[in-house]
Amino acid sequence: MKIFSGTSNRPLAEAICKNIGMELGKCTLAAFPDGETFVKIEENVRGEDVYVIQSTCPPTNHNLMELFIMMDALRRASASRITAVLPFYGYARQDRKDQPRVPITAKLVANLLVAAGTNRVLTMDLHAQQIQGFFDIPVDHLYAAPVMYKYLKEKNLPDLVVVSPDVGGIKMAHAYSQMLEAGLAIVAKRRKSATEIEAMTVIGEIRGKTVLLVDDLTETAGTLTAAAKLLKRKGARSIIACVSHALLNEMGIERLRKSAIDELVTTDTILRPAIAGVNITTLSVAGLLGEAIKRIHSNSSVTSLFEFKGGRTS
């Protein structure tokens, strides 16, 4: 078995290798003067079971292209099996035609991964679970919930209510409420545009409670901050946001600084510099991904990683 990493999240790849107890594979990743990506695998991979770790976070197109080129290099070097490890799967929000003449880019990315030589995909907290069905190769879909649960349980939060910031996240919020033995509430929202959210109403009792807002990803933080503002107005005591993938652009950071959210709990699926003025707790999913890689390599069951506290995490 050999593990290689693109440039999108090398610290996570190194943490995964440390967890497994092996070295990260040697490869050269460089750019030609015109911006084209050059890849050279610096060790023998003939007949090897190879894993390539690459989050397709911003710059998304560059990271995707780098991944495709690495896959092609490994396939042409006669690797026996190539697994794409995508801690964050980009373009996942474009998973259906919700208006005329638009692409289904999540499916296009799936096709490109297979065309580049991917034999298997390992990913975490997909924005839309049906993306697993876009592939005709095996997909192992992990959840960050066990890592989040451990941290939240240690905090021993009083009067906890898990809140979904929109109707689409009810399933995830319900799973968290079951795990944490907490209440459940929903914020019914209306989206004005890709960057603007108009929060409408709260379904459930949150007055005087500690609120845990759960979502799979946030970029502009519009949904989270609008929901937090409404929840605070409705009498929530404190608000913690729990998000698997925090992409956070400048708009999102500015919104979080001004928001009613006391703490943002996220994971290291995306490499992110320290952000001043925002209380962010970053938990590592390296152990979870490392264990999955070990089990896939040894042809062991990965099912137990999907199950948690006697039930499925989603």
Descriptors for this entry?
314 residues, alpha/beta, Rossmann fold, 2 domains, seven-stranded mixed β-sheet, five-stranded parallel β-sheet, 9 helices, 16 strands
Tell me what the structure shows:
This protein has 314 residues and is of the alpha/beta class. 32% of the residues lie in helices and 27% in strands. The protein contains 9 helices and 16 strands. The strands form 4 sheets. The chain has a 7-stranded mixed sheet with strand order 10-9-8-11-12-13-14, with helices on both faces. Helix 1 crosses helix 8 (286-297). The longest helix is centred in the first third of the chain and has 17 residues, at 60-76.
In short:
By secondary structure, this protein is an alpha/beta fold. The chain has helices spanning 10-20, 60-76, 105-116, 145-155, 170-180, 222-233, 250-258, 286-297, 303-306, and strands at 2-5, 27-31, 37-41, 49-53, 81-86, 120-124, 139-142, 160-164, 183-191, 197-203, 210-218, 238-246, 263-267, 280-283, 307-308, 311-312. 32% of the residues lie in helices and 27% in strands.
Number of domains: 2
What overall form do the CA principal axes indicate?
globular
User: Could you give the distance between the termini?
Assistant: 30 Å
Number of helices: 9
Largest β sheet strand count, sense and barrel closure: 7 strands, mixed
What is the count of β-strands?
16
* Quaternary class: single chain
CATH topology of the largest domain: Rossmann fold
CATH architectural grouping of the largest domain: 3-Layer(aba) Sandwich
Uncertain runs with pLDDT below 50, 5 residues or more?
none
Which percent band covers the strand fraction?
Answer: 25-35%
Alpha-beta content class: alpha/beta
Order of helices and strands: EHEEEHEHEEHEHEEEHEHEEHHEE
Q: Which class of the largest domain in CATH terms?
A: Alpha Beta
Radius of gyration based on Cα positions: 20 Å
Strand line-up of the largest beta sheet: 10-9-8-11-12-13-14
Helix percent band: 25-40%
